[in-house]
Write a structure and sequence with these properties.
Number of strands: 18
Oligomer: single chain
Strand content: 15-25%
Distance between the termini: 23 Å
Largest sheet: 8 strands, parallel
Strand order of the largest sheet: 8-7-6-5-4-3-2-9
Order of helices and strands: EHEHHEHEHEHEHEHEHEEEEEEEEEHHE
Helix content: 25-40%
Structural class: alpha/beta
Radius of gyration: 24 Å
Mean pLDDT: 96
Length: 361
């Protein structure tokens, strides 16, 4: 065996869901499992999110997969239907949809609403990707209400991770005033959903009726001012490999493609059985390290398709087949993201099926 593995800690996922409930005790939880649960394997993660009130997916295909796997609670398709046939399928199978443009609204108004059918009506408060303007929203809400639909007004932050960003206040004010207007002038039962993972942490007074945790469930920090550990989150994905070869270099010897790293003195290096074909990023900074035998070992040279190299000169008791952690408890996925000028979401989502996948409760 190549000894390269992804271990998914389902107990950690359950723990993180409980942390969301601790932050937002009065709101319902729409647990985001889009993109195959951020790369963690949505079907396998279902037992760990059983206490969520609903699941959020990006598209109908993801919802169907989870229903076929046995999920019986509510699901919400956050990109909405892409055709009339998809809308009709959702209505027939108790799958709720976001409505964010006129064509989707037309499909909704063409179909008689079943009792309790809900539309998640998207308001554009400043993200400027999807959603209706505040000037359009009253008429649309009236049309949906007259057609028998219940409504959850929803929007999405553009800068929730940066707590002091001025756009946050603008989005608050527009969402607050629009929701209040709709409750006063259309239907007092209209519900609201504003907070993603960062919003859940940063603004306890803005949780409304539904919160939508995503990255926080998987043990990465959603905010700039606190680490996952400080937020009492547990890493769900642990990326592991092993030392497959050890060599001694003399001063002046270079390692790997492009001869990116050259030994300045005699050095002991290890070859690790993982590469970018497994999902470990090729572009990495000089700050990058792995953990082996409880010690940090710097990554050197270029990450290749099947392997990477580390400097073992200053480590002890590291031999062939020693297990290596690429991310998990240490280093954290957020650290690895920072070394690549990216975010944890991307790294988690692109891990491949090439390593051995292990799910543990």
């Amino acid at each position: 065996m190549r000894q390269t593995s992804i271990t998914i800690d389902l107990a950690a996922l359950t723990h993180n869901l409980q942390r969301v409930k601790d932050y937002a005790p009065t709101a319902k939880v729409l647990a985001m499992v889009k993109a195959n649960a951020y790369g963690h394997g949505a079907v396998n993660c279902l037992p760990a999110v059983a206490q969520a009130d609903a699941l959020g997916v990006a598209c109908l295909q993801e919802a169907i997969e989870l229903q076929q796997a046995g999920w019986q609670k509510l699901m919400v398709v956050i990109e909405g239907a892409f055709s009339l046939a998809e809308w009709q399928y959702c209505i027939a199978h108790q799958i709720e949809c976001v409505v964010h443009h006129q064509r989707q609204l037309d499909w909704a108004l063409q179909q008689p609403a079943k009792a309790g059918a809900t539309v998640w009506l998207k308001l554009n408060t400043g993200m400027n990707r999807l959603g209706f303007t505040s000037g359009e929203i009253k008429k649309i809400a009236q049309q949906l209400t007259e057609s028998g639909y219940e409504i959850v007004l929803t929007t999405h932050f553009a800068n929730a991770d940066a707590i002091d960003h001025p756009n946050n206040q603008q989005q608050f004010e527009l969402f607050d005033s629009t929701l209040q207007m709709l409750r006063d002038q259309v239907n007092p039962a209209i519900k609201g959903s504003l907070c993603n993972s960062a919003g859940i942490v940063n603004w306890s007074d803005r949780h409304y009726d539904w919160v939508r945790p995503g990255i926080i469930l998987y043990g990465a920090t959603p905010v700039n001012h606190a680490t996952a550990k400080q937020l009492n989150l547990q890493p769900v994905m642990h990326f592991n490999a092993s030392i497959m070869a050890i060599h001694t270099l003399k001063a002046g010897d270079s390692v790997g493609y492009g001869s990116r790293w050259t030994a300045q003195a005699p050095a002991r290096i290890g070859i690790v059985s993982v590469g970018y074909a497994d999902g470990y990023p090729r572009v990495i900074s000089d700050d990058a390290y792995i953990v082996v035998a409880g010690q940090q070992a710097p990554i050197i040279g270029r990450v290749a398709m099947d392997m990477l190299m580390v400097d073992l000169t200053h480590t002890t008791e590291v031999n062939l087949d020693c297990p290596v952690q690429l991310w998990g408890n240490a280093p954290s996925i957020d650290e690895v993201g920072s070394w690549n000028d990216t975010i944890s979401y991307e790294l988690l989502s692109v891990v491949t099926r090439r390593p051995t996948w292990i799910y543990q409760s």
